[in-house]
Amino acid sequence: MPEGPEIHLAARLVNRVAAGHSFTGRVVKSAVSTKNPEVQFEAASYRVVAEARGKEMKMVLEDQAKVVPRTEIHFRFGMSGCFQLTPASQLPKHAHLQFALATSPAQVLSFVDYRRFGRWEVGGAWGRDRGPDPVTEYQAFRANVLTNLEHREFAKPVCEVLLNQTFFNGIGNYLRAEVLYRAGVQPFAPAREVLAPLVEEAATPTSCTSAASCSRRCWTCSRARCTRPNLV
Predict the structure, then answer these.
(1) Which domains occur in the chain, in start order?
(2) For residue 1, what pLDDT is reported?
(3) Residues labelled catalytic
(4) Residue ranges of the alpha helices (H) in the chain?
């Protein structure tokens, strides 16, 4: 299942393609994608910008002639969603939403979803039950966790809490395993017990040990490696 890093990579791909090309024509939905809406957007030439937040991605379509209203599409990638750039003659079988580039030969940027659990919504907004993004909104993400440690959720094992998107937006199964392993944290330790020392760190910053003797990445002091376990 795509998690935060994969969504950010998808947004980066879309923006890289869009930086060098404009798009044209109408947005095409595949006939088999019956649970997702049509995207009523068509323009002779339009630009695309993508933004990732946790496990969601937003695409903004903007007509360069300013005739067609700006349109936003919010994507949730489900189990297998991704974006692919291909020649128009070689569309993937499960290209469920297609954006044609103004290129010769013709190319198409597609939302591809083999298992069809992915969803998109025209307009809409970021999920209201999802917290700040750990990559693009790091300070807000950290504050959202540390100021809510008294919430009953943090009495649960840290391996469960890391999947709660209200606090750890974008984290899924493989990321929680990697985070806990690298931080040297027991997965069934109470989350509040694991994270409480970070509240004291935030109040009284301390200097990191020397890089030569460190063994883990340190997010608080921005050094490359640090001996202190740090999940946020």
Answers:
(1) 4-122 (3.20.190.10), 138-207 (1.10.8.50)
(2) 85
(3) 2-3, 55
(4) 4-20, 138-146, 158-161, 173-183, 191-203
